[in-house]
Each structure stands twice: as structure tokens, then as C-alpha cells.
Protein 1
Amino acid sequence: MNCDELDLDPPVRAALRRAGLKGVRDVLGVPAVDLQRQTGLFPQDVQRLLSTAAAAWRTRAPVPALQLGPGCGLESGLRLSVGCPLLDELLRGGLPAGGVTELCGQSGAGKTQLALQLCLTVQYPETHGGLQSGVLYVCTEDRFPIRRLQQLISEQSRLRPDVPPEVLSCLRFSDHVYIEHTADLDSLQLCLSRRARVLLARGLVRLLVLDSVAAPLRCEFQADDWLTRNKQLLSVSCSLQALSREFRVPVVCINQVTDVFSQSDETLGPSPSSLSPALGLAWANQVTVRLMMRRLSGTVSAGGQSSAPRRLEVLFAPHLARGGRGCAVWREGVRGVAEEE
């Protein structure tokens, strides 16, 4: 869809032409801060522009087949448990066995902790919420936290008291976690097209974790390279979706967040801000489920342990209502906490 078809004020149309933004997809693929810088528009004009473009895109664009068609994992009812009944209740059984699930949040919110937990729950039989296979964990910025994984393995009997000891004794968790480190986009694409495909085709893994999706894009591109960045982003997204659709496996992408500051005319002090997942609407349109982990103030205690409280929230999903559940990171893993705690 062309921007000329949108109901915009003439100065906004002229600013878009000067910036070389002709299509609605081009507008939605640029973060609000960069869009304001490129067009010279006021913040309120940028927000109205994005709202108008998003509404037009939803009206014209059909629902992606990945989300509602065969292969997305929603129609089959097969789920990957996160290893906690309270969190599984929020997610109606866990992550769908198909499609791209984004897990975003600030540093220290518990995103990697939950991803490591999924690396173990995927190895359980389906009767205990797993997929009875391994995981490919792709690291793009930090080293894989092997010590934390080993601690989680040693504490599985505490996290999963519902699993019989004879089942736990048969699982060799560390033998089925495949780790790849990719420093740039080229090595990431090579990993997805070769390493991941071979492991999936052989049935050695049924879960793919990318930690994180934003890191290689932020390292390789400057703010002015947004068009090239978006093309690379869509290329990575297509590879992830193709693997998920072909092998019917869940793909979990950890994403960073940015602060979005609101405009206030009543005060000259600091403007309030809210967290928004990185990579903008270009990436948001590629994911099936978007979850956010938030770290809250205070302390919760249980079983002689204390932890900072967290909250796992559903931002959007085709099969879930928006909502959240309190949780915390314990020695044995991420567990939900009752509201009174």
C-alpha cells in the first residue's frame, strides 16, 4: 500500500516524500525515534502517522497463514510446557509447537532463565509437557550460561515433582542441548540453513532458541541503514518461520527492549517512559506470540530462598487473552507465585 492512499495532512505527506518513504511497510519498519529524525515531524504527528499506517495495514493485509493455517501448531493443541503449572495456565498449556514466540524484556528480567528452562522441558515425554527431543540454542551476544544450565539440571526433581523419578533418571539433559555461537548475520544465516536444518531433519532437536535476535542487527547497522537492516531482519525471520513450519517446532526468540518516552506539555521535567520491544513493527509482524518478562521491585521468599519478583505478560497471541502472572527465578528455575505472595 502506498502512503498516498492514507488519510494524512499535506505537510506529513511532503515530509514522507522528502524522506523517501513511499510505502506503508516502509513507515511501519522504522522505529518512531528514527522516523521523527528522518521526517522532521513533531512527536505527536509521528504517533498519528504510525497509528494511521498500522490501521491501514491491518485492514488491507490478510492474516498470515503462519499464524492461523496448518503448521502453526495452534490447531493441533500440542504445547511445550514451560515447567510450571501456573505459567502453563497463563499460556493455555505452554508454547505452541510451531510458530515464532518472542520473549522480550529488560536485562535481568529472567528471559534467559526461562529459555534455559525450556531447554530441559522440551526433553520430557509429551505426557509431561515436553516434545521428547533436544534443543538448538543459538547465542549471538553472550556466552552460553553452562553453569546455570547444570544447576537447573541438578534441581529438576524440585522443579518437576510431578515427573516420576524413573522418568527423570532416564533423561540425559546435557547430551541434547546443542549450542552455537554466531557473531554476525552471515554466520547466523549459515547456522539456520545448515546446522539447524540438519539437526531438525534428523529429529535430534524440536526446539530452536535464538538469544538474541536484536544483537547482530544492532552491531552491524547504523541508524541510517534502517532499510538494509529491515531486509536482513525479514530474511532471518523467513528462515525461522520456514524451519518452524516445515518441522512443526517452536522457535523462541529473545529480544531486547527500548524506552519509549511520552510527550508531555504540562511539565518540563523528565517524561514518563514505557518499554517497547526492539526492532519495531517490521519484526512484530513476523512473530506469532509475544511475551514480556518484567522485573519488579521488592522481594519474594519461599523455601528458604528469596528472589526479585517478576511478571510474565502476554502482549499478543492469536489464541491467548492479554494478561500476566507473577513469577520469580529460584535455584531450581522460574516458577509462578501466588498473588498473595
Protein 2
Amino acid sequence: MGNQLSEKVALITGASSGIGEGAALALAAEGVKVVVTARRADRLEDLVSKIKDNGGDALAVAGDITDEEFAKSVVARTVEAYGRLDILVNSAGVMALDGVDKADLDKWRHVMNINFFATLYTCTAAIPHLRAQGGGDIINISSTAGRRTAAAIGPYGASKFALNAMTEGLRQEVGGDGIRVCVIEPGATSTEVAESIDDPRKKEFIRHHVTKEGSMKTEDIGKTIVFIISLPRRANVSEILIRPTSDVAAM
């Protein structure tokens, strides 16, 4: 598998922690050259050092992916550094909980900007490069919240539903150009997603949910990404719902 992917170049957003970090490590282990981006430059540098210590090739480009111009520039920087872009993994995300009645509109905008618009920006910037090469892969990280929602998770669920819809529309739009598009919808995965929640009680609830016994690890999602891009080019896994084995409740 390493030989198959060793000439590929990937850009991964939200790579300073969580699923983005797991994706970077998994792809680098397969010989993919990775460009990692997020706002926390120190964490990105630590990740790059870890990848290089293991024989991989990585570049950190710190910045705010919700800034449209930065999102465009990090795609351009990837192509400038490695001469191509084959894989885009959009993992930047945030969780905030709110309702519609008496909504905190700034909170809703913040979540939509990170979970939806940032992905739209990088996809738009990457498509011309992927098309010019004759194909590539775009993988967007959504959530089970993109299939079901609740009053308490208004902005988060709405952003993930929007991301799912955009991803499927994009698949139909660019599949004829050899560009495969996939949305991954993970269930409980041990990450720092709860830390952005401002309500202490809700933060503790989500923190427990994602770290409970049997929760998935970020490397599980990383391996899922490797599986997706390793399939023959004629096969596009367009959607993967992946949950802990012990989570047996109906959707």
C-alpha cells in the first residue's frame, strides 16, 4: 500500500489535533507527503517533527482556514511545495451547542464558518489542481450529527447536514473529471471536540461521550481514509458512517 501512495501529496485541515492529526499520521505512514494546517502553529510543528522522525515528509502552514484568502493560499502553497495536490482532507471543525429560540447568532455563524464554509473554500481552491492532474480525492469529515440532530446541538447539526449536502453535490459535479469525493461521518471518537463548548455541564457530557469505553480513536478514522484512497480509481466510496462497535442504538 505504501508504494501505491508514496508519490501522493495531501493537504489536511484541522491537523493540530483530533481526526486531522490522525489523518496526517496515517497518510504519512503510507508514504504520502502531507501539508498540515490549523491555527496552533506549535502543535503543527510537533506533528511535522513526529512525521519526519518516522521517515515521512511533512510541511506545516499555520493559519485560520475560515479566512477565504488563507484557505486559497494554503492550497497554492501545497502545490508550490510539492508540485501537485492529490488528496484534500477537510477535518477542521468545532462543536457549539445552541437552539433556534433566542439563538446566539454569533455562535451559529462561528460554527458554520469553520464546519462548512472553510471546507467550501478549500474545495473550491483545490478542484482546478485536481482536474488538471486528471483526478484526485476530496474527503470531508462530517459526523453522525449530519444524519440526525436534536434541539441541543442546533448549529453543529445544521453545519454537518449542510456539509453532507455540499459533499454529495460536489461528487456529482466533479466525478466526471476523475475526482472522487467522500464524506465520513464518525460517531464517538476520542478528540478535544468538547473543549469548545461554553456550558460546563454540556461540555462534560460531550467529553464523556467521546472518551467513553469503546470509543473510536483518531487512528481509526485515519485508517479509514487510507482505505478510501487506496481503492481502484473506478471505485468512489462516497459516504462512510463509522461508529464504535459498542454503540448499538438505532439512528
